[in-house]
């Protein structure tokens, strides 16, 4: 009898549509790999979720949820209580990675370079600049660049003045790091490679990430060899200091804009549950490393575990 894998997808975060795409792709790849697969579209209803899990009796849950409540330790805690092994990171690593200020403190504590910044109240942002321009404003715990604002040097509009900012009273403000957007996939404790992401939008925002033609992926990233190796080492270090397991993806900036200075890498964040369609960044880097999509998701379910 085939091992039964239940794919959790959808959810109720701002990244619901992304999760539905990931879950659909993962389910198809797992079926191709020979597993018995069921899917659950997760709603904000624990009774229905637990009932669905009890009815399907999964050997492993593949967690294809993205964003809050699916990526922040919440669903991981439920699965731990039920003693069902699941893919990706556990409660603590998921919660710390999702909370950007906490993750930054951890990264800085082991020497991983991060952008200078601070947490401010929304009222401070509405009152005026909270950092010298240019700077970036981010929700504390959203993914996929949801709610991110770049405040440019010549901007005349006041940040957030026209918005109600539905992400809580606190805002993470960071110095803007110029240069290039790169990302590194980590599988277990090994980096698979580095991708450079370019976009005509000038900023790798939600639309650039998910709209057709919104961005281009350069694989492998055209970086100096030493920088390429350093990016992979930083991604693995960040994965480990957070206590991640399974697959993660580290997003960094490479500032090579100063002609008289060497380039520098800055860690932005670690995604504990990155996008998982066949053309997403992690599967794309896995393919570059010789690992097909069905092989990748097979490794993930075979290495699933819980802390129950």
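^ Assign residues to that structure.
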């Amino acid at each position: 009898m085939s091992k039964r894998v239940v794919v959790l997808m959808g959810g109720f975060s701002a990244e619901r549509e992304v999760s539905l795409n990931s879950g659909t792709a993962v389910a198809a790849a797992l079926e191709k790999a020979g597993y018995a697969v069921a899917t659950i579209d997760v709603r904000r209803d624990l009774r229905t979720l637990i009932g669905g899990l009890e009815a399907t009796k999964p050997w492993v849950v593949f967690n294809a949820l993205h964003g809050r409540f699916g990526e922040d330790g919440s669903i991981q805690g439920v699965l731990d209580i039920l003693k069902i092994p699941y893919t990706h990171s556990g409660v603590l690593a998921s919660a710390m990675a999702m909370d950007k200020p906490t993750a930054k403190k951890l990264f800085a504590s082991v020497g991983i370079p991060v952008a200078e910044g601070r947490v401010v109240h929304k009222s401070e942002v509405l009152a005026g600049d909270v950092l010298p321009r240019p700077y970036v404003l981010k929700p504390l715990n959203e993914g996929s660049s949801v709610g991110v604002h770049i405040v440019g040097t010549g901007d005349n509009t006041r940040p957030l003045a026209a918005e109600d900012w539905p992400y809580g009273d606190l805002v993470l403000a960071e110095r803007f790091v110029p240069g290039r957007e790169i990302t590194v996939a980590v599988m277990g404790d090994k980096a698979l490679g580095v991708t450079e992401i370019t976009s005509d939008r000038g900023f790798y925002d939600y639309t650039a990430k998910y709209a057709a033609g919104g961005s281009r992926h350069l694989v492998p990233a055209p970086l100096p060899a030493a920088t390429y190796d350093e990016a992979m080492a930083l991604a693995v270090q960040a994965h480990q200091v957070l206590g991640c397991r399974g697959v993660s993806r580290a997003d960094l900036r490479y500032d090579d804009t100063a002609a008289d200075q060497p380039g520098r890498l800055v860690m932005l964040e670690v995604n504990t549950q990155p996008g998982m369609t066949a053309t997403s960044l992690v599967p794309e880097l896995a393919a570059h490393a010789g690992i097909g999509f069905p092989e990748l998701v097979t490794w993930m379910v075979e290495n699933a575990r819980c802390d129950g």
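Residues 38 and 56 are 7 Å apart (CA to CA).
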